[in-house]
Specification:
It holds the Pfam family LRR_RPS2. Keywords: Plant defense. This is Disease resistance protein At4g27190-like leucine-rich repeats domain-containing protein. InterPro entries: At4g27190-like_LRR (IPR057135), LRR_dom_sf (IPR032675), Plant_NBS-LRR (IPR050905). Strand 1 and strand 2 form a beta hairpin. The protein has two helices and 21 strands. The chain is globular, with a radius of gyration of 20 Å. The strands form five sheets. Strands 1-2-4-6-8-10-12-15-17-21 form a ten-stranded mixed beta sheet, with no helix packed on it. It has a five-stranded mixed beta sheet with strand order 14-16-19-18-20, with no helix packed on it. Strands 3-5 form a two-stranded parallel ribbon. It has a single domain, classed as Leucine-rich repeat, LRR (right-handed beta-alpha superhelix). It is mainly beta.
């Protein structure tokens, strides 16, 4: 636990190494702004037990790297109480399966949904067991300040925004806006199938740099309209006639075939 060797502490910055578990309910770190967790080869749990989530409400930047035993980054309680988290960077965490632990709490807690209202940058690299970035419910107003998404060499990633397609009507399109997103990079993700579930349509009016490479199995189609808004749309299988109609509608902009490499910058 924090407080017994292997750490250097100040009011705003904390760097930690060599622990199996970190924070519990006995520590008050309410002034902490920057947290860097590096080379924690035995770390499995960052936030443990009935920790007071208020202790981390000023956290703005979290970096986690070379922590090969870590299975998830956030507990649901902590994830609901990070109003100022702006930067999230994770790399070389081999066993990481999800960013947020599955929520086992009662339904009353769902009145306070998980969201990161200040998150501006998320960057993940070399986390081979991660299956998705965030639940698609996050995108319903929970990450409106997000500017950068960078996912590289996450070999088992299947979805960027994960959702239960069984509960989604394929006839009802859900349009999601990421109004401040400027940079999207998807690189060397061989198992990536979709950006978001079927019938979701993501629109990024501020995107300046789009890079997709080494994602041969992705079925989401990216396009740019005449106003330079970037669209990411995942649809059920289409007939030839439907495809022709869609391509005709996008004729004033640019549409890339599913699975193709993309390197596009706004002009």
């Amino acid at each position: 636990m924090i407080g017994r060797g292997g750490s250097s502490v100040s009011m705003e910055y904390l760097k930690v190494s060599n622990f199996k578990e970190l924070f519990d309910s006995s520590y008050n770190l309410s002034s902490l702004k920057f947290l860097s967790l590096m080379e924690l080869t035995e770390l499995r749990v960052i936030w443990n037990g009935s920790i007071q989530a208020v202790n981390f409400q000023n956290l703005t930047e979290l970096n986690v790297g070379d922590s090969i035993s870590l299975r998830y980054v956030f507990s649901p309680t902590i994830a609901r109480n990070l109003p100022r988290l702006s930067v999230l960077r994770i790399f070389d965490c081999e066993e990481l399966e999800q960013n947020i632990e599955n929520d086992q709490t009662s339904s009353q807690h769902h009145l306070h949904p998980i969201c990161f209202p200040s998150l501006a940058e998320v960057s993940i690299r070399d986390c081979e067991n991660l299956k998705y970035l965030f639940p698609v419910t996050f995108a319903h107003g929970g990450i409106l300040k997000l500017k950068t998404i960078s996912l590289e060499k996450v070999s088992k990633l299947e979805q960027v925004f994960e959702g239960d397609e069984a509960n989604v009507s394929k006839d009802e399109e859900k349009v999601i806006h990421l109004p401040q997103l400027t940079d999207l990079k998807l690189s060397e993700l061989p198992n990536l199938m979709i950006f978001s579930p079927v019938s979701y349509h993501f629109v990024s009016p501020s995107l300046e740099d789009l890079k997709v490479g080494g994602c041969p199995n992705i079925t989401t189609r990216f396009s740019v309209d005449s106003k330079q808004s970037v669209h990411a749309k995942t649809q059920a299988s289409q007939s030839d006639d439907e495809t022709i109609v869609e391509e005709s509608a996008a004729a004033q902009g640019t549409t890339w075939p599913a699975g193709s490499d993309i390197s596009w910058r706004a002009f």
